[in-house]
Amino acid sequence: MDRTFVMVKPDGVQRGLVGDIVSRFEAKGLKMVGAKLELLPEERVTDQYREHLEKPFFPGLKQYIMSGPCFLMVWEGRNVVPIVRTIVGATNPAEAAPGSIRGDLALDIGRNVIHASDSPASADREIGIHFTPAELVDYTRIDESVLYE
Ligand code: UDP
Predict the structure, then answer these.
(1) Domains contained in the chain, number
(2) ipTM over 0.90
(3) Where are the active-site residues found (predicted)?
């Protein structure tokens, strides 16, 4: 099974959206295999967003991500990376489809509520930045036998 890294950003935590967001992934049939609430240290923010270090929005992005606790998760399922990106919606909430998390719950690209890995390689990398193997739990969801062909 594939895994992806998902993080409710500080605006999502402050606005009390964690429950709604977790419910959407649970209802889809995905399996949560790791979760924790954390104030992220600067090194992990810089590492996660290393491709954006030189972008003009990076200082503001770093300040935003470190402004309060984030809710970090690892989700598992077949094709989980593209499935979660679709549920999350476009980076700019103005372009995010209704029904997606950013389409329903966000207004501004700089306060877009949630992060999700954009490829299986980034997922592996980001899970490694934020979770130890011991923090990821191996178990079976009771409905797994009916969720997949
Ligand atoms: N971002 C921003 N301004 C921009 C582009 C990106 O503040 O013009 C922030 C936004 O929080 C976004 C994050 O940087 O989610 C990472 O950007 P990326 O293009 O990787 O989008 P994502 O993968 O989060 O959809």
Answers:
(1) 1
(2) yes
(3) 115
